[in-house]
């Protein structure tokens, strides 16, 4: 793993562009370094000054004549290359380049950024930025940034691609009473990326949870690799912005149109154990929960409330987020019955009614936390004349400490009357919310993380022995030689068979006699389909005839197809007509793949047919995640198609095992052959026993 000590815990720092002028960023950085309590050596660099803020100033890094771990550069863009070169020569370990005016401003800036990176590579220096705010580490302590203020000490690391977002969050964190271990602004990520920083924060003993705001990921495959390991150590919560559907719109296959980069991110995050959130609120709700509460062992939630309505809202939210309302043991129910007023609800949600004082909260919360069927608790408090918000807050904090293996969240619904209580909760790091739903959403994130940790044990990948690599290689080479990118039906069929995927038998006939001869061997009934690299939707041009029972019918259908197709598309190159056996009935599903630029092949499964894009009953996985039958089954069960496969409305159940095998093999195929860019098997017909790939479309690209 990369050693980023020079960044978070440097022994010496040079601030290049340090200035006496308080308006300059170079002044703010020096001031921040000094005032954060940093204990290492500080070297301001400014050719015009003898001393700045009481520190001896040097004309350049070369003049220091001591080793320097970190140089923070805040000079105009035209000087940065020269300064970086000086740093390299002086043996500086790493740079933070604050200066803007690089890649983000266009071609000239990009050129400069490349020069900067080349210098770093030449001298073995690492670089954060350019165009960043800097870093802060509250435990070193070090404020190597030009932000206003230094975060409270805590156990949350924040990595942000947006500098503005970072400084705003910092300011807001004071109000919220949230503490941080690290604050990192990645800037343009010309060298160090969010991946390096996540890896480093996962190893940081002072960090318990890693938050990221990202706009893009630098290297999808490495992201998955690093985060899969890092998230086993610490929860990683990511807010990803800037998801475009442009890629999806441009795709030519069903799968491509369904996929889009958002789905790929979704699949990658899921595979890496990363928790994705959609809003800043969710990001911080989860951060607060993880930073102060234990991870729940399971999904059973107890709700204690002094008001019926919010209790129902909480119950609805528990269901909405896929958690469970805990069913108390008989012992707990007896205890609650014997000690709460007659009007109280002793089942979950426990309604201790409007006149509840602190003692009733104490009793009910303790009883539920002691219950072995409870994994977490939500305490709801609405202000009434007799309510004791602050005393109850103390009780909640006390019981949370006592039962320290179960997370507790407080929902204080109100404003002024509850302010003191809320303050007490926040000062004591107990997550409090104004409404029930966000508290349940945070619990859901924690529960999902727990699930990931439980399932993170490595599982042996399924062994697929009967795959014939050479036949696929030969078939694809032939297509490339023909200067085509879409496989013809019989070629796709060959590829499927070679990888052990049951497919309807497809043979190419170039005359009606040959078609009849093939049918003689294949048996009846059969289907005939036009074979042309230019015709994707064969039915639309009269290119398909099905249910043919005799030689006579086959010959007649052959002529009919030729006539119709040449009538509609006189210029389309026709290779012949494909003869296909008729396949048994079954549930029709789609299995496909589209390639994401960042994360590689993305496999889709869902309800098949011509309405797939309309219905969008689909689930996605990166092909690299699909190497066990368990994972494939999980993917299948996420869709409504699974309900049909199980046997909907009295129908017999379909062979999910056979389908799983097909999906697993597709995942292997697309990983083995990098040139496959898109693939649609729509439909795969899943029978009561076995399954058959019916219509297979494979698109490839020419590789150098
Ligand atoms: N070596 C050492 N010192 C130097 C050198 C050098 N080669 N060249 C100049 N200096 C000194 C200057 O003399 C000056 O000191 P002085 O005040 O004593 O004269 C100091 O370095 C700064 O140079 P200036 O020319 O005054 O530059 P200024 O401070 O105005 O701007 C800066 C430099 C801040 C890097 C600017 O170019 C810039 O990039 N600003 C944007 C920064 C930014 O926004 N970054 C992204 C953050 S992310 C976000 O969105 C918030």
What can you tell me about this protein's structure?
This protein is an alpha/beta fold. Helix content is 41%, strand content 21%. Strands 9-8-11-10-12-13-14 form a seven-stranded mixed beta sheet, with helices on both faces. Strands 15, 16, 17, 18, 19 and 20 form a six-stranded parallel beta sheet that branches. Strands 25, 26, 27, 28, 29 and 30 form a six-stranded antiparallel beta sheet that branches. Strand 6, helix 4 and strand 7 (126-128) form a beta-alpha-beta unit. Helix 11 (308-320) packs parallel to helix 16 (436-455), helix 13 runs parallel beside helix 14 (389-402) and helix 19 (512-522) packs across helix 20. Residues 247-259 have low confidence and may be disordered. The chain binds acetyl coenzyme *A. The site of acetyl coenzyme *A has 28 residues, from helix 2, helix 3 and helix 5.
In summary, what is this structure?
By secondary structure, the chain is an alpha/beta fold. Helix content is 41%, strand content 21%. The chain is built from 24 helices and 30 strands.
Largest sheet: 7 strands, mixed
Q: Got a strand count?
A: 30
Which structural category do the helix and sheet elements fall into?
alpha/beta
- Which cofactor or ligand species appear? acetyl coenzyme *A
| Residues in helix, % | 40-55%
What is the percentage of strand-forming residues? 15-25%
For the termini, the CA-CA separation is 33 Å
Large-scale geometry: flat
Report the oligomer: single chain
Number of helices: 24
